[in-house]
Specification:
The chain is α/β, with parallel strands linked by helices and 211 residues long. The protein is built from 4 helices and 9 strands. The protein has a 9-stranded mixed β-sheet with strand order 3-1-2-4-5-6-7-8-9.
């Protein structure tokens, strides 16, 4: 299988349980909930995405003919001569359109811990070390378990209570970005205080000006 990747970069994870952890991000091209084109946003299943995942023209991006070729590129971004376990976050767009067992196995052979950030509409292949699912209101969920559920909040059409019975280790509310960020943050804080199964996830990379 070939892989289409928008960009690869090294930074600190900004969200959720691993916030602050150094990671190589591999952003796959394409998504099943939005084309990525502004002209299509109003009719998209997910209308609030703030990420450019079109094409393969980002830094480190490209078309990779094999899992080994992509793993080679990812490995170049991890600092050399470090004893810390390498960590790669597969994101998008929707990474599970492309992330497969072959790539997971090759990354494991290079000692990488493999994480995925997915909208949960595609069941995850076996072998992923950390699964973060971010449900979208109008999308059918097919990944019902994982390590971290992160709900962008508030979303019309999906309430946190509807998700609490799913098999996840941690539940996060992440305030929806945009012109109403301050109000959304206040609502998320209040909800977490009254429903302590939920934790607040702040996009610290945006606060700090990181990728």
């Amino acid at each position: 299988m070939s892989y289409q990747v928008k960009e690869i970069f090294y930074t600190l994870q900004g969200e959720g349980t691993h916030a602050g952890r150094p990671a190589v991000f591999c952003r796959f091209s394409g998504c099943n909930l939005w084309s990525g084109r502004e002209a299509d946003r109003s009719n998209a299943t997910c209308q609030f995405c703030d990420t450019d995942f079109i094409g393969v023209d980002g830094v480190g991006g490209g078309s990779f003919a094999s899992a080994a070729e992509l793993a080679d590129r990812i490995e170049t971004y991890w600092p050399k001569m470090q004893t810390a376990k390498p960590f790669v976050v597969c994101t998008g767009g929707e990474p599970l359109l492309q992330l497969d067992v072959d790539l997971i196995d090759v990354l494991h052979s290079r000692r990488f811990e493999v994480a995925v950030e997915t909208n949960g509409t595609i069941a995850a292949p076996v072998g992923i070390d950390w699964i973060c699912v971010s449900p979208k209101a109008k999308a059918t969920l097919r990944q019902f378990s994982g390590h971290e559920l992160k709900l962008v909040f508030p979303q019309v059409g999906v309430q946190p209570k509807e998700l609490e019975s799913l098999d996840f280790e941690r539940f996060y509310l992440q305030p929806m970005d945009g012109i109403n960020l301050a109000a959304n943050t206040a609502k998320a804080i209040e909800y977490c205080l009254h429903n302590p199964q939920w934790r607040l996830s702040v996009q610290t990379h945006k606060v700090l000006g990181l990728r």
